[in-house]
Amino acid sequence: MLGKKLVTAQKRGETRALCLGLGMVTCSMMMYFFIGITVVPFYTKSVWTTETVCKVLKASIKDKVLCPNSEGSEDEDIFPYPCLQVWVNLTASGQEVMLYQTEDTLDRNPKCSYVPVKLENSKEVKAQIETIASNFRKYQTFPCYYDPGGTQTNVILSRLYPPKGLLFAFLWPTLMFTGGCLIIVLVKISQYVSVLSAWQ
């Protein structure tokens, strides 16, 4: 009687462990799919792939502009802010080009190098942009990214999804997938050993 209860409990434990392993594999596949349709397209579309050194030529703040209403954005996303324009000398080619914070900045407003987060207090936005401009004037040389193919003549300060970020995004689903497969394999080995012992 006791042996029968132990076998039943063992089967229940194996079933739960197998469900856990299958659940982890399923979740990891869903995460792979989600990353594949969200992060990967932005990474592959970015043409600013080569790092070089930029030297600031001019950092000026123009009059207030409106953030253009891009596709899919709401009216409340439109707000006035001082337009910071940063012109740099591209070391790779010696050209004078405009610097943008990220790829998204160019899409949101090609006239300005930086698009601030919407804040209720316009003084805070102005102070933030002035701080950024003074930092550019202070640190004249810094790494930036340009398009080696020449389709984009401007440069960006940082990429939204660099190679390291893409690898980090795939790290967690890979660990979950590996853990799920390992649990399934261990359960199958346990079942095989139980059957082998029963035969003996």
From TrEMBL:
Any one GO BP annotation for this protein: detection of calcium ion
Tell me what this protein is called.
Answer: KCMB1 protein
Recorded hits in InterPro entries, A to Z, give: K_chnl_Ca-activ_BK_bsu
UniProt keyword DNA repair present: no
From the UniProt record, which GO molecular function terms apply? Answer: calcium-activated potassium channel activity; potassium channel regulator activity
Where is it predominantly found? membrane
State the membrane topology: Multi-pass membrane protein
Provide the alphabetized UniProt keywords. Glycoprotein, Ion channel, Ion transport, Membrane, Transmembrane, Transmembrane helix, Transport
Q: Which family does it belong to?
A: Belongs to the KCNMB (TC 8.A.14.1) family. KCNMB1 subfamily.
Give TM regions.
Answer: 20-43, 166-187
Record GO cellular component, one term: voltage-gated potassium channel complex
Q: Give the source's domain of life in one word.
A: Eukaryota
**Is this entry keyworded Thylakoid?**
no
Protein source organism: Ardeotis kori
- Where does it localize? Membrane
